[in-house]
Amino acid sequence: MKTQRTLLVICALGYATSTMIKKSITEFFEAQGVANWTVDTIGLTMAKDRLDTADLIVSSLGLNQTEYKVPVLNGVPLISGIGRDAVLQEILDNVKRLDG
Fold first, then answer.
1. Which intervals hold domain Phosphotransferase system EIIB component type 2/3 (predicted)?
2. Which phi and psi angles does 29 have, rounded to 5°?
């Protein structure tokens, strides 16, 4: 049995932008059969309390990877559409690696 994992979507306030990114990821996970991941949204100021539970972060804010213990991916292409498929593949690659 696979462990339940969490992908945390971080944007400035945790509302509109992160919700759009979450929708893209959730639909992608469903299409790919990824069932053991929860996708949550949160604003940057509240994210510190949730970082210990995150296995992967997708953000629209250009977060610095060196400040986080888990992979941080750029979520802007999931809003703009430019490079969307590449980001979704990068997310899937990380999910597969983490699921081992």
1. 8-89
2. -60, -45
